[in-house]
């Protein structure tokens, strides 16, 4: 245990001093899980603090990295979106590992409504989710834009990681060739570098009154990077679970062109299908890209790049591999 760690307040003491109550919000299913604990002041109905508690040495490094990046991003100045980003209050300690304690943010996770009965079958409800995410991202981009960056940076390090992780599996050599071509195509496109959340999906967006009231889990954040990553990650993750509540082989309610079954069917539908949802997803990408000075037509390459990035980053090996297989199917279909 380092000197810095021994000097930290024990999490149990911090909760006791708060004088209220604590509630375990969630234990993630990732191999390197973190426990999220809400800390309530006496008599309060809403939490005041949130503690992120790592369960492994690897997740402990993630927690420390998240605290560092939150501090660095806050130092840039976030303008109106500052109220939606957690502030690091202190670093505590539990069982010899660091615990990040941040301010609590209001709102309900977008994911709760997403999984409500036929939410994703209703165009107006889905359009509202996209609009909320897009408005928040526009604010983040405006507040943190500085300098410029090549979109090839979206794939920095990704081919190397995929080669090490999956290089022995059939087809990976061809995937790496596809990635090289993709990186070449993106190299000529440039936009302003901005802060990047890095894992912008419905589970990390909090909503209140139809607007984003908070964004959590910044451990994959970049202080300065391609703003297109968050746009693509949101579309991919929203699309991925469209068939979650449908039996394999059946049509997905509200989406006549989508059948449940093959992993990633919703993403393929968003990118290559017909119907209101693919139009909405593609329009969201194209309009968002034009807003940051990029041509709208480059959205397929940016979605492919983010699929590859997930394959490189994801802790869960099977989840990562499925993303690479999906990248394989879609990239070879788009650029034979």
How would you explain this protein's 3D organization?
With 336 residues, this protein is of the alpha+beta class. It has 2 domains: 3-102, Phosphorylase Kinase, domain 1, CATH 3.30.200; 108-334, Alpha-Beta Complex (Aminoglycoside 3'-phosphotransferase, Chain: A, domain 2). It is 46% helix and 20% strand. The strands form 4 sheets. The chain has a 5-stranded antiparallel sheet with strand order 1-2-3-5-4, with helices on both faces. Strands 6-9-10 form a 3-stranded antiparallel sheet. Strands 7-8-11 form a 3-stranded antiparallel sheet. Strand 1 and strand 2 form a beta hairpin. Helix 7 (172-187) packs across helix 11 and helix 9 packs across helix 10 (276-291). It is globular, with a radius of gyration of 20 Å. Mean pLDDT is 94; it is low at 1-5.
Layout of strands and helices, then pairs:
Blueprint: H1 3-6, H2 11-18, E1 21-27, E2 34-40, E3 49-54, H3 57-76, E4 88-94, E5 97-103, E6 108-109, H4 110-114, H5 123-144, E7 146-150, H6 158-166, H7 172-187, E8 190-196, E9 205-208, E10 211-215, E11 222-225, H8 228-240, E12 251-252, E13 255-259, H9 265-272, H10 276-291, H11 299-313, H12 317-334
Antiparallel strand pairs: 1-2, 2-3, 3-5, 4-5, 6-9, 7-8, 8-11, 9-10, 12-13
């Amino acid at each position: 245990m380092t000197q810095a760690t021994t000097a930290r307040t024990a999490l149990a003491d911090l909760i006791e001093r708060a004088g209220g109550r604590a509630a375990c919000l969630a234990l993630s299913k990732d191999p390197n899980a973190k426990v999220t604990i809400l800390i309530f002041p006496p008599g309060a109905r809403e939490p005041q603090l949130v503690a992120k508690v790592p369960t492994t040495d690897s997740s402990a490094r993630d927690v420390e990295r998240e605290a560092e990046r939150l501090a660095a991003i806050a130092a840039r100045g976030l303008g109106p979106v500052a109220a939606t980003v957690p502030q690091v209050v202190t670093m505590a300690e539990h069982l010899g590992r660091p615990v990040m304690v941040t301010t609590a943010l209001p709102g309900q996770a977008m994911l709760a409504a997403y999984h409500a009965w036929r939410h994703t079958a209703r165009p107006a409800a889905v359009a509202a989710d996209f609009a909320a995410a897009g408005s928040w991202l526009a604010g983040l981009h405006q507040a943190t834009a500085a300098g410029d960056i090549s979109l090839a940076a979206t794939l920095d390090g990704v081919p190397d990681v995929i080669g090490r992780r999956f290089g022995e599996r059939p087809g990976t050599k061809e995937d790496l060739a596809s990635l090289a071509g993709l990186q070449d195509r993106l190299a000529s496109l440039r936009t302003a570098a901005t802060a990047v959340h890095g894992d912008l999906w419905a589970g990390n967006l909090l909503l209140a009154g139809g607007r984003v009231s908070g964004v959590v889990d910044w451990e994959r954040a970049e202080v300065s990077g391609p703003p297109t990553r968050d746009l693509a990650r949101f579309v991919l993750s929203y699309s991925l679970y469209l068939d979650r509540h449908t039996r394999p082989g059946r049509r997905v309610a509200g989406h006549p062109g989508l059948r449940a079954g093959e992993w990633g069917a919703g993403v393929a539908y968003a990118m290559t299908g017909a119907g209101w949802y693919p139009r909405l997803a593609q329009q969201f990408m194209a309009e968002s890209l034009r807003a940051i000075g990029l041509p709208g037509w480059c959205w397929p390459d940016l979605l492919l790049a983010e699929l590859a990035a997930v394959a490189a980053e994801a802790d869960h090996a099977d989840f990562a591999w499925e993303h690479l297989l999906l990248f394989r199917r879609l990239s070879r279909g788009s650029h034979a």
